[in-house]
Write a structure and sequence with these properties.
Elements lengths: L1 H14 L7 H5 L12 E2 L8 E5 L1 H4 L6 E9 L2 E4 L6 H4 L10 E4 L10 E10 L13 E5 L24 E6 L14 E7 L2 H7 L13 E5 L15 E4 L2 E8 L10 E5 H8 L3
Antiparallel strand pairs: 1-9, 2-3, 2-5, 3-4, 4-7, 5-6, 6-7, 8-9, 8-11, 9-10, 10-13, 11-12, 12-13
This protein binds 4-(aminomethyl)benzoic acid.
The site of 4-(aminomethyl)benzoic acid (4AZ) has 13 residues, from helix 1 and strand 12.
């Protein structure tokens, strides 16, 4: 139920990012240092493949219209979460949005550093299940190439980066407290890949949001505290220098026993026939 609530609140939160209070603030226990909850500021030059998705038309002037994260996996190819492209988040079909852009090379969203590159096409995984959350990825093709060196390699199935307890880092411009506060600058949090058995225990089978090891992975800390949060969706989880996950869902942010759930990149590769 909690995660259903969290999911239900996320979309309105994205749209009302500047609102002073959010329902999540009262629904969650105190998360003192929740990224990116429990994170630290980073310069985008340290993770040049981390991009922000923005639309000023849809999301106004706040935070340069940032509403999700993404990750560059090719000079003009960005992966993000399918749910970021959902009509219920965007308020329109992605193909109808004239100013959908990727912001690259900009840590501070309100600065004019880096580049804003228009998205020329959006491909949402047709296998995405908006109820069960599986297959949560989309591929954006950019109208211009990113600067060289802005691309990260993807970890294939069997890569040791997926092993339980591997240290990993998640990046994003999302909520830093779980209560709707957005720093407007890129943050990162250090987490660990968690064993599938633990993820299954945290998110057992149910109507929605159950954990599926084949298509998802989960990461966090046993005590909670470090996690991705609203607004980080679609952004990268990196281990051993390779992309292993996309921020997808979870119950709250940084809650003990409720790790963040990510789209498993090896499943993305398999689905796209890139593996
Ligand atoms: C979201 O819906 C979201 N704490 C992202 C990450 C997490 C929860 C929700 C994980 O944007």
């Amino acid at each position: 139920m909690r995660r259903r609530l969290a999911r239900a609140l996320v979309r309105p939160l994205v749209l009302a990012a500047a609102a002073a209070t959010t329902p999540l603030a009262s629904a969650s226990p105190a998360v003192a240092d929740s990224i990116v909850v429990g994170g630290f500021p980073v310069d985008v030059s340290q993770s040049p493949w981390t991009v922000a998705l923005s639309s000023r038309d849809l999301f106004g002037g706040t935070r340069a219209g940032q509403f999700c994260g993404g990750v560059a996996v090719g000079p003009s190819t960005v992966l993000t979460a399918a749910h970021c492209m959902d009509e219920s988040v965007l308020g329109a079909k992605p193909t109808q949005i004239r100013d959908l852009r990727v912001i690259a090379g900009r840590s501070e969203l309100l600065s004019d550093k880096g580049r804003e590159i228009p998205v020329s096409s959006v491909w949402v995984n047709p296998g995405y299940d908006g109820v069960g959350n599986s297959g949560d990825f989309a591929v954006l093709t950019l109208a211009e190439k990113l600067p060289s060196g802005s691309v990260i390699g993807m970890a294939r199935g069997g890569d040791p980066a997926y092993r339980a307890y591997t240290p990993a880092t998640v990046y994003g411009w999302g909520d830093t407290t779980g209560g709707g506060s957005y720093a407007g600058s890129l943050h990162a949090a250090r987490v660990h890949v968690l064993p599938d058995a633990l993820c299954e225990k945290a998110y057992p089978g149910g109507v929605s949001g159950s954990y599926h090891a084949g298509t998802m992975l989960c990461a966090g800390e046993e005590k909670g505290g470090r996690d991705a949060c609203q607004g980080d969706s679609g952004g990268p989880l990196v281990a051993q220098g390779r992309l292993i996950g996309l921020v997808s869902w979870g119950s709250g942010c940084g809650w003990a026993g409720s790790p963040g759930v990510y789209t498993r990149i090896s499943d993305v590769l398999r689905t796209l026939g890139w593996g």
